[in-house]
Amino acid sequence: MKISPGNGNVHGLSGGKLRGVMLTSLKRIPSPRGAVLRAMRASDPGYEGFGEAYFSQVLPGCIKGWKRHRRMTLNLVVAAGAIRFVLHDGVDFQSMVLSPESSETHKRLTVGPGLWMAFRGEGDSVSTLLNIANIPHDPDEAENRDVEAFSWQWPC
């Protein structure tokens, strides 16, 4: 796995930087008719091939997770709204809020195999998440746990 610890500061970041996690600042290109928000290029760090891309919607206050992939590398970009991500390596936690609303929070979160992840929709509207995964979805490739499985306390 080529992924190194995260870079840069992200609004809402807490906990140490976990191995297998990378945060990449993304370009926002202003336009009078609406900004262009970059997600990923094949030459970017964290790109490990293409298996599939999909969007996931998250209702405000709803938590999805915990999930741990055995082989999949996730490249996560929040396309609308705001989402708090929590990563867990079995010992430590790392948390951050990502959103396309500002250069501070418009980042791509790369999560390598073997880490637990959960996320919650923040704010008052539906949030949309893009995952650019290196392999196609395989339900036997991931492990799921109930949201109460770990000691993480979701901030209010």
Q: How are the SSEs ordered, and which strands pair?
A:
Elements: E1 21-25, E2 28-29, E3 36-37, E4 52-58, E5 63-69, E6 74-80, E7 82-88, E8 93-98, E9 107-111, E10 116-122, E11 127-133, E12 142-144
Antiparallel strand pairs: 1-9, 2-3, 4-11, 5-10, 5-12, 6-9, 6-11, 7-8, 7-10
Quickly list its features.
mainly beta; 12 strands; globular; disordered N terminus; Jelly Rolls
Task: Provide structural commentary.
By secondary structure, this protein is mainly beta. The protein has a single domain (about 20-30, about 35-145), classed as Jelly Rolls. Helices cover about 0% and strands about 40% of the residues. The protein is built from no helices and twelve strands. The protein has strands at about 20-25, 30, 35, 50-60, 65-70, 75-80, 80-90, 95-100, 105-110, 115-120, 125-135, 140-145. The strands form three sheets. It has a five-stranded antiparallel sheet with strand order 1-9-6-11-4, with no helix packed on it. Strands 8-7-10-5-12 form a five-stranded antiparallel sheet, with no helix packed on it. Strands 2-3 form a two-stranded antiparallel ribbon. Strand 7 (about 80-90) and strand 8 form a beta hairpin. It is globular and about 45 Å long. The N and C termini lie far apart (about 35 Å).
